[in-house]
Design goal:
By secondary structure, chain B is α/β, with parallel strands linked by helices. Chain B has nine helices and ten strands. The relative contact order of chain B is 0.18. By secondary structure, chain C is mainly α. Chain C has twelve helices and two strands, in the order H-H-H-H-E-E-H-H-H-H-H-H-H-H. The chains are: A mainly alpha, B alpha/beta, C mainly alpha.
Chain lengths: 339, 251, 287
């Protein structure tokens, strides 16, 4: 089994025989698709933007959970915090989108740093419970502080000025889409580098056996705090993006459901692949959109069922399925030619 | 006799509720020491090692490594200062290859594992050294295999390889040959024979032949207390030890 | 005197939490499986009972039939869904059970819609009892009584019977339990079924305090988990104390500090878990 560290690229990359050039082609593919949607499928742009934001959020969970093994069900805390921070920034300080994005990211990162330092010496169910409790606490505080956050009604009155002073965030959402895509690309490159660095490898080691890592002198707690903070920053950016492109922040941004659905997306796509977040989030957003036409809750049925099936049978998510398919197809292919 | 002790333990104590696991244990290890730690089951041998490494926090007493008080330091910090161990039950990274398991230890030892950039050259250097380390122990054929695919004896050997890579000053071996089938055990014995002379080594073992062959000194632990410490001959001849541990069958 | 009312209200709420959560603490402690779908079982029990009553059944009939039905459902789920995941670790279990919760929510919405499902109590229990200083809802007294009796019965079962001894042994050391010939599989399935039945029981009688609607399973999930983890996973007494404490503190908070109560609980949970990561259970003394 190829580990994601050796081959974090798309599942089918090996089909070209591991050829370096062909590998890069497969890397371009998801981004090409994303750009293609922009030019071709006008009506789906707002859905696409939502998908991009969820991809970034899911990516943040892949780093913390998939690679470092931190069982976090409360990632929505950072998402929501980034959203509210960016929203409040635009209302009370300045409507510039990039500054607001930076602010949201930093606030989420700081919160991640502080809470991470507090809880990351625990593990397993205790850690999971602590992440849940922190997220629930934040959600309750946001609901309570309705003078600041708008409470149940959400944060309204946001106004975002044009990007770089040139591109307004209009009703068609074209600026929003490319904005989100650009930010996602930057964070993706960062995640890619992190995952393949010695730091990223040590995190993978920590996930597999923290005891072993301590026995070779790894400052486990510090590494976990570092990746948790980074993951929080990423989630915060995703939240800020959502706030800015919708010019609204709903109270449900902090909900357990948000954390849970992102986890579902990640498992669907496949952990420790980075692109798994792409596949999973895109799939989920599309299914939810399609199913919602019939019945708002049918998508929960489909997604829940898929999650059960994947956890029980498809350990590696949809990308793992693609891997498996590709291996078998390639085997058949080679077998056919050998005869 | 002339070199100062590299490891000093003074009145180390630990209890779990009413159960004493270590009772005012004293110990001194000089560089190059070969100490065997034996005792009946439940005597607290592994707990003692855990106290030394910091996995267990002591109730009282001091531990000094090269004169420096490490009693309250975290386990990873003690490793960085030169105290390494192997585990009674393998603690390896199952999804990685043997070579990568050692390579990450090289990276941590050289303090480059936190690096985010220039990863290619750093990792290559680490894997090169890892390959050399594995070759020293005769494991070069298996270097690229995933740990989960290694035979048990080789996994035990890998534990030792990783500990050695850290270039420790004090090495704690927790039953290195335990569970290894006789056919593979010689590799472990060879590795133990070839351990660098300057490292101070404490070895827990139940295999008496191995202990008497390896150790220049033996310490007997019973119910958390040091019963006696002396040369292998002293220990073998001591009547108390015989009754408590070696049993009448040893003769 | 209002404090006494708070105490009674809080105790009633705590009893409901205990009855629902005790099954979870035992299964999480026994099978070491993270079961995020526990609330779903409680919810199903409530819905089944409500339907039975709607169809003309009595309160007691509804309780018995619904609890048994959910117990059976739990046994089936354990065999098909949970058992394959025992070796797979906490994350896989958390995810599968999370997915299972989604499925249950969707199914119940399809069947019953999104509105709150009322579960009418029997005439005997409706109304007020004269407590001297005030007239207090009889149903809440019923909840307190039922909770106490259930706790007592369970304690006797766990502490004084062979089954209980086996259960405690298996919780302490499943490997050893298997090694001495205990049919751990049967024990697991049976205990899981009982846990689900208890959850259903709690969901049914607690419907007045925890209203039945499809998102019940997610809405109260964190609350049930708090009871279990703060009390100490697998610790029966701990979950009793934690449930009562949670019930009383939450009720008192809502009354005395309206608004802040919601996050005070979480702050307390966080502080407590940081101080004692294993819950109220004294630290395990395994050398």
């Amino acid at each position: 089994m190829k580990t994601a560290i050796d081959n974090p690229g798309p599942a089918l990359a090996q089909l070209g025989g591991g050829d370096g050039r062909l590998r890069w082609a497969w890397h371009i593919l998801p981004w090409a698709i994303a750009l293609g949607i922009f030019f071709v499928a006008d009506t789906y742009i707002s859905l696409g933007t939502a998908a991009l934001e969820m991809i970034l959020f899911t990516l943040s969970i892949d780093l913390a959970l998939g690679y470092a093994g931190i069982i976090t069900f409360g990632q929505a805390a950072f998402f929501g915090l980034g959203a509210y921070a960016a929203g409040l920034f635009s209302i009370h300080v300045a409507p510039d989108p990039l500054l607001g994005l930076l602010f949201g990211t930093i606030i989420a990162a700081l919160f991640g740093l502080v809470t991470g330092m507090l809880i990351l010496h625990t593990e397993g169910v205790t850690l999971m419970m602590l992440t849940l409790a922190i997220a629930s606490m934040l959600s309750a505080v946001a609901l309570q502080a309705n003078g600041l956050t708008g409470g149940d009604n959400g944060l309204q009155g946001m106004h975002i000025s044009p990007l770089f002073g040139l591109f307004p965030f209009d009703l068609w959402g074209r600026t929003g889409y490319l904005y989100a895509l650009g930010v996602l690309l930057l964070w993706f490159i960062a995640a890619w580098r992190i995952v393949r660095s010695p730091f990223g490898r040590s995190l993978d080691g920590i996930r597999q056996n923290p005891r072993r890592m301590r026995a070779i002198g790894t400052p486990v707690w510090w590494r976990l705090v570092a990746i948790y903070t980074l993951s929080a920053a990423m989630a915060g950016t995703a939240g800020a993006l959502k706030a800015q492109t919708n010019q609204f922040v709903g109270i449900d941004s902090l909900d357990l459901l948000v954390s849970g659905t992102a986890l579902v997306m990640l498992i669907l796509g496949g952990t420790r692949r980075l692109y798994g977040a792409f596949v999973g989030a895109a799939f989920y957003v599309v299914v939810q959109d399609l199913a919602a036409e019939f019945d708002p809750f049918r998508w929960m049925f489909v997604i829940g069922g898929l999650l059960i099936v994947i956890v029980l049978f498809l350990d590696d998510g949809l990308m793992g399925l693609a891997d498996w398919t590709q291996e078998h197809v390639a085997g058949l292919w080679r077998g056919a030619f050998r005869k | 006799m002339s070199a100062p002790p590299i490891l000093e333990v003074r009145r180390l104590s630990k209890s779990f509720g009413a159960l004493p696991v270590a009772q005012a244990i004293d110990l001194e290890l000089r560089p190059g020491a070969r100490l065997g730690l034996i005792g009946p089951n439940g005597a607290g041998k592994t707990s003692f090692v855990n106290l030394l490494t910091g996995t267990l926090r002591a109730d009282g007493g001091d531990i000094l490594l090269a004169g420096r008080d490490i009693t309250h330091l975290k386990p990873e910090r003690r490793v960085q200062l030169g105290l390494a161990r192997t585990h009674q039950i393998n603690a390896l990274l199952p999804e990685w290859s043997a070579c990568d398991n050692v390579a990450i230890a090289v990276a941590e030892r050289d303090h480059v594992a936190w690096r985010l950039f220039r990863y290619g050259s750093i990792w290559r250097r680490c894997t090169d050294e890892a390959a050399a380390q594995l070759a020293l122990l005769g494991m070069e054929r298996l270097a690229k295999l995933r740990v989960a695919e290694l035979p048990y004896g080789e996994q035990r050997l890998l534990e030792i390889a990783i500990a050695l890579t850290l270039k420790p000053r004090v090495l704690l071996l927790d039953e290195p040959a335990a569970g290894v089938p006789a056919a593979e055990a010689h590799a472990i014995h060879d590795a133990l024979d070839r351990l660098p002379a300057e490292i101070a080594i404490l070895m827990i073992e139940h295999d008496m032949d191995l202990v008497f062959r390896f150790a220049r000194e033996i310490m007997v632990l019973v119910r958390g207390r040091v019963l006696i410490r002396g040369t292998p001959d002293d220990i073998a001849a001591n009547p108390e030890v015989r009754t408590v541990y070696l049993g009448r069958g040893k003769g | 005197m209002a404090y006494l009312t708070i105490l009674l209200d809080g105790t009633a709420y705590g009893m409901v939490l205990f009855i629902i959560s005790v099954g979870l603490t035992v299964t999480m402690g026994l099978m070491r499986v993270v079961n995020l779908a526990h609330g779903a079982f409680a919810m199903i029990g409530g819905y089944v009972a409500a339907t039975i009553i709607e169809q003309g059944g009595g309160f007691l009939t509804a309780i018995v039939v619904a609890s048994l039905a959910v117990g059976a459902l739990g046994a089936i789920a354990e065999l098909l869904l949970y058992r394959p995941l025992y070796r797979r670790g906490e994350l896989a279990q958390a995810l599968m059970t999370f997915g299972f919760t989604f499925v249950v929510i969707a199914a119940l919405t399809a069947l019953f819609g999104t509105n709150v499902k009322t579960l009418p109590a029997p005439a005997l229990l409706i109304g007020l009892t004269d407590l001297g200083y005030t007239h207090y809802p009889t149903y809440r007294l019923f909840l307190i009584a039922v909770g106490a009796v259930t706790a007592l019965c369970l304690w006797l079962l766990i502490d004084r019977t062979l089954y209980g001894a086996r259960l405690r042994a298996a919780v302490d050391n499943p490997h050893m339990a298997r090694a001495i010939g205990m049919d751990v599989n049967l024990l697991f399935t049976g205990t899981f079924a009982v846990g689900c039945a208890l959850a259903a029981f709690g969901g049914i009688i607690g419907a007045a305090l925890l209203p039945l609607e499809p998102f019940y399973a997610l809405r109260y999930l964190v609350t049930f988990l708090i009871v279990v983890i703060v009390g100490g996973v697998g610790n029966f007494k701990g979950s009793f104390i934690a449930a009562l404490a949670l019930g009383i503190i939450d009720t008192a908070g809502k009354f005395l500090l309206p608004g802040t109560s919601a996050y005070i609980i979480y702050v307390l949970v966080i502080v407590l878990l940081l101080w004692r990561p294993h819950g109220l259970v004294p630290a395990r003394s395994a050398p």
